[in-house]
Amino acid sequence: MANTQPPRNPNLKSNVRIRTVIAVAFFTLACFGILVYQLYALQLRDAEHYRTEAVTQQLQDTELPATRGNIYSANGKLLAKSNTVWNIIADPAQSEKNGATETEIRTGAEHIAELLNDGTSADDIYAKLTARNKNGELYQYRVVAQNVEKPVADAIIEYSKSYRTAPEKEGETGYRIAVLSTEQSTTRSYPYGAFASSVIGFCNNDENGKLVGAYGLEKSYEEDLAGTPGRSIAETNVNGEILANTEADVHDAIDGNNLNLTLDENVQAIVEEYLAEAMDTFSVHGRGSAIVMNVKTGAILAMASLEQFDPNDPMTVYDDKMQTILDKTDALTADDIDWLEGRLGEKNVAGIIADGVISQETTEDENGNTISSEYTQLQGMLREAQWKNKNITELYMPGSIFKLITASAGLDSGIMNMNQTFYCNGELTVNQGSELWEHTYHCANGEVHTLQNMAQALDNSCNLWFIQAAQTLQPTVFYDYIRAFGFTQPTGVDLPSETRWTSVYNAQQMAEVDTNLYTAAFGQNEAITPMQMATAIAAIANGGYLVTPYIVDSITDDAGNIISQTDTSVRRQVISEEVSQEILSMMENNVDPNGTLSIRHSCKNAYVAGYRIGGKSGTAERTDRHLRGDGDYYKAMSFSAVLPINDPEIEVFVLLDDPRWIHDYASQVVAPVVGNIISEVAPYLGIEQDANYNPTGNVTVQTCLDYTWTNAQVTLNQLGLQHKLIGSNGNIVYQYPVGGSSVPVGSTIYLYTNTDQDAMTTVPDVTGKSGSFASQMLKASNLNVQFEGDSSGRVVSQSTAAETSAAYGTIVTLTMESDGSEDTAEIPAEETPAEETPAEETQEQ
Description:
By secondary structure, the protein is of the alpha+beta class. About 35% of the residues lie in helices and about 20% in strands. The strands form twelve sheets. Strands 2, 3, 4, 5, 10, 20 and 21 form a seven-stranded mixed sheet that branches.
């Protein structure tokens, strides 16, 4: 058979071999090129990145938080402190590298949840142990739990170290399943809860878990309180454990400095007690504000803004009334709406509640954006309302208290003197015939005061007299004094969020529209802050000097070294000392029932026997709100008192916004509150008493049965007697000591509104004690004291036997003898805001 295959090419095999060699060569070159490129990338281009990653994996860099500084009262009471706690940190990425399975991680999560025992579920723990970022990568840092006490944190870390994967070889320990570590952190606590909370404020945690001041002093002094964090850097193994026989490189944190306040906790407690009592008794729908300050230095001794909140739990709405309204599921009543409007403002409430029902459903706007439910919006507004210090953040219309400014301007400018007279016939029409500007003014209740001088007009609080005074002053002069008294700018108080906005007419506005001038003259249609008004009154009282108010006396480090000290800052002299004395004399006449400059003494409800007090009330019509149901305006009522009038030391200012009571004037509603505060604060501070007053005599108790608590307290203040209310609102049904009794001046009368049964106490044994020590012991037991003999001596007997039961207010007569010795026993501590105050929480002074 013939061969049909084509002839073979002898070079074919050789060509295949060559191509193979070339391909191998190219492949080898390509691999070599890739290797070279990788070496370049590793050693040159990305070298720094990998070095950093290696260092990161080999080193544990931990921030050491600084301990936030403490806040102390004027007497060294601890008002805010920090506590060391621990955060539990997970490294989910390392757990995966260690080969941990889902089942193993879930088991670990269950055990960690048990150890935490704080309500955190195992599912929550598992989610954090396996958390991924938006790219699907496991996190290397995830906070599992915050603010854990050290014993619990230690137990969790010990568990994580022992809970490991099965070892690959005999003798090995396996890898950690839950790779956990701890970070030191701090929490903030406030031993007295809501006490002075609108001043102190509170802290929040930022995105890194660090405490940061959010409100109050915590915010305004953040830089001083926060301190500087430190660092700890240590070598670790693959499990993140610090290598044995190595030491961490530690850079210690610098702790924050401490704030030492001018705020006196005893004065603050008195102010808060009487302000809260007034808010309840007078059904105040709006805010309640109070300030006690040293008129000479500007130091604030007390500042309250109600409703307050507990800074340990600031997210809870503290006002039960507001929370009850918020939780309603049916339609709100008109009274509910009224309360909300009083606290939050009419426009704010109307903008949220459209149909009278608080919805808990979210909605969407026209762009598809989610709008929070009405419930959430109102809850947020109520929280913010309780956090705000309304003495500096919100404006109010001062009313007739502003007549002190008008009078000061008239006297200091030389345009008027105290003998200046104007006539009041009950009404005054201005711009007659003008369709646009004609207006008729009246005095309160249509009263006709006839011809009056300045002191009489101030006592009568005559609107028409002060309108004519403003006409005489003219806009330019009047506005110069409004500005000089500080009503056009913030006071500069060292608290955050003081509003920079006020609503006062300038000279041009008063010149162009004369009714602006007239209403401003008696404090209407202008709005200022309580702090501005109090600071202006302080200037009148201290000889005419406008001082900057302050509440932080000094800043100290942990060793007590003074970092900074606040000194009195005089901004300017507004009026002369002579004019200051003239205004003070008229203010005293308003309060003192025995004053001789006029006969009405309209502010006598603030009088406290034994003290020379001057004051002025203000009742403003809230023209920024709709009318009340009775057709009248809502009222803002304020009162300011200074004492002692011959050399003023302190001012007490109180504002009640929208009280609802049988009387509608500050002289009847707020003046008694100020008098009550003075009755306790003045003796405590050692304010000088009237030289003509006998504080050691006896006085006859007046019967207060069927009195309102306000009238009863006013009556007792004017007799030089203390008072305590047993019960709640209502008229007095029983008192002890009873009316007609003769008691020592300064004794306490106990007023009962709910029962005619005496509250009882146990009489302490005070024999052998000094008079002052025995007196404090008996008063602490709600008993009164009468001395027979020298009160500076020693007690030899007591009229009521020790360890027997006696009614509150019982007079215990102590027989004294003088032995010339001093009592070395410890005097009982002054009453503090909270009885459980630990002794170690008092700063050494």
